[in-house]
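Design job #97: recover the sequence.
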C-alpha cells in the first residue's frame, strides 16, 4: 500500500458517512461529492469533486502526496492536498481568473460545474488552484491537525506588468479546510482544541514567455491556519508539538485560540482582515457538552 492510500480510504469514508447523514451534511455544509475519474488515461492521484451548500461553483480536492513526520509526540503521517475551485459562469468571481481559466470554465465544464471527463486531462494542473491543505494524523495518540495554506490574492502578471489573474485564494480555500475539519469532527467524534493562524509577506507570479517567476508583493499576504484536534488534555503538549512542527517558522503568529470544553467558541477570529477566519460549530463533534452550548447562529 502506498503512503497516500490510507488517506484516500479515510477521506472517502468521511465523505460517504457524512453524506449518509442529512444532519452531518447540513452541519458541515456538504451538498454533494463525487470521486474524480480519469478519461482515456487513469488518474495518478485520487481526487474528489465537492459541492457546498449555498455556494456557487464546485471544488476539487486532489491528494498529492503523503509522508511521515517524527515529532516528539509520536510518528505522524501527513497528507498534502491541492484545492481547486471551478467558478460558476454566473459568479462575478469568474472574471478574476485568468483568460485561460475562463476559457476552460466556458468550454470544458459540464452541467455539474466540473470538467467533462473527456477533456479534464487537458486542463493544466496549475489552473484553478486556490490553496493547499495538509492533514496530519498520529496513530499512537489519535491526535490530528488540519492545515490550510494560501494567499489572500493569487495574482499573476505578464512581463509587461499586465494583470491577468487576481483570485481570492484564502477566501476560496477556507471553506474546504473547514469542510474537512468538520467531517473529521462530526464523523469521527472529535472536537477542535486549538486554532493557530500565521501570516508572512506574499508574492505574485510573473509570466514571461513559457517561464513563470515569482516576486515579492507587499500588498499580498500568505496565510496559514492550523486546527488541532488533541484527543485528551494529557496529550496536549505532544499534540501542540505536532502543530508547531507543521507550522512555517517564518510566519508571524497573528491568532492562537484555545477551545475550552464548556465554553462557547468565538464565531469569528479577525487576526488580519485579509485572512478572515470563521469558527464553524461543525469542528466540535466530539464533546457532548460543547455541542449543547453551541448556538444556532
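Job complete. Output follows.
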Amino acid at each position: 500500500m502506498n503512503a497516500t492510500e490510507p488517506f484516500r480510504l479515510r477521506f472517502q469514508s468521511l465523505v460517504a458517512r457524512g453524506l449518509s447523514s442529512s444532519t452531518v451534511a447540513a452541519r458541515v455544509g456538504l451538498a454533494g461529492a463525487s470521486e474524480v475519474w480519469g478519461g482515456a488515461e487513469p488518474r495518478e492521484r485520487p481526487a474528489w469533486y465537492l459541492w457546498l451548500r449555498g455556494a456557487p461553483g464546485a471544488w476539487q480536492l486532489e491528494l498529492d502526496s503523503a509522508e511521515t513526520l517524527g515529532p516528539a509526540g509520536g510518528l505522524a503521517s501527513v497528507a498534502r492536498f491541492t484545492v481547486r475551485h471551478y467558478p460558476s459562469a454566473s459568479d462575478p468571481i469568474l472574471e478574476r481568473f485568468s483568460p485561460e481559466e475562463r476559457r476552460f470554465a466556458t468550454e470544458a465544464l459540464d452541467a455539474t460545474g466540473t470538467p467533462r471527463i473527456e477533456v479534464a486531462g487537458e486542463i493544466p494542473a496549475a489552473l484553478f488552484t486556490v490553496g493547499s491543505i495538509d492533514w496530519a494524523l498520529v496513530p499512537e495518540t489519535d491526535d490530528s491537525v488540519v492545515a490550510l495554506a494560501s494567499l489572500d490574492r493569487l495574482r499573476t502578471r505578464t512581463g509587461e506588468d499586465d494583470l491577468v489573474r487576481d483570485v481570492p485564494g484564502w477566501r476560496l480555500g477556507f471553506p474546504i479546510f473547514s469542510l474537512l475539519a468538520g467531517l473529521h469532527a462530526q464523523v469521527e467524534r472529535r472536537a477542535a482544541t486549538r486554532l493557530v493562524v500565521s501570516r508572512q509577506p506574499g508574492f505574485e507570479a510573473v509570466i514571461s514567455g513559457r517561464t513563470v517567476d515569482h516576486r515579492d508583493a507587499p500588498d499580498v499576504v500568505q496565510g496559514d491556519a492550523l486546527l488541532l484536534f488533541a484527543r485528551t488534555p494529557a496529550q496536549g503538549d505532544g499534540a501542540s508539538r505536532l502543530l508547531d512542527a507543521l507550522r512555517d517558522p517564518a510566519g508571524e503568529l497573528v491568532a492562537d485560540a484555545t477551545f475550552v470544553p464548556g465554553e462557547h467558541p468565538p464565531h469569528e477570529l479577525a487576526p488580519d482582515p485579509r485572512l478572515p477566519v470563521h469558527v464553524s460549530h461543525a469542528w466540535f463533534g466530539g464533546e457532548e457538552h460543547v455541542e449543547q452550548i453551541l448556538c444556532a447562529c
